Amino acid sequence: MHYMLLIHADPSGFEKMPPAEAEKAMSAYTDYTKALKAAKVHVSSDRLKPAATASTVRHVNGKLKVQDGPFIESKEQLGGYYLIDVPDLDEALKWAGKCPGAHHGAVEVRAIWS
To answer: pLDDT tens digits for 66-106?
Structure first.
């Protein structure tokens, strides 16, 4: 079954880190990705550009409205994801707990409709 691990964090966290600490934090994601691939549960993953570069699209009163930036007002923002293929939610939660994002933000686990 496919599960999406959505990584939410305060994007200013990395900006505040000294370069060596930020590099160490990023290498933790590289190691985590390698572990997912070695376990043959990795389907895909990627980082997202900052929320300030986003656009939000909706229909308001029958007209298309495009808003620059994210819609939500929140300290934490969606920064990336992992799509994994594991037997059940318990296994997905175990992998989410190993994700570096769980140490500096939150990892939301959602099953994919299939």
So the answer is: 888 766 666 778 899 999 999 999 999 999 999 999 998 89
Integer CA distances (angstroms), 69 to 1, 42, 43, 46, 72, in order: 32, 30, 28, 20, 9
Model-level pTM? Answer: 0.86
109, containing H or E segment? strand 105-111
Local confidence band at 45 (pLDDT 50, 70, 90 cut-offs): very high
Q: Domains in the chain, start-ordered, CATH in brackets?
A: 2-111 (3.30.70.1060)
CA distances from 64 to 54, 55, 70, 73, 86 (A): 16, 13, 16, 21, 39
Q: How far apart are CA 108 and CA 101, in angstroms?
A: 10
- Which one, of 3, 10, 18, 2, lies nearest residue 78 by Cα? 10
Residue 101's pLDDT is what?
A: 92
Instruction: Give helix then strand counts, H and E, for the chain.
Output: 4, 6
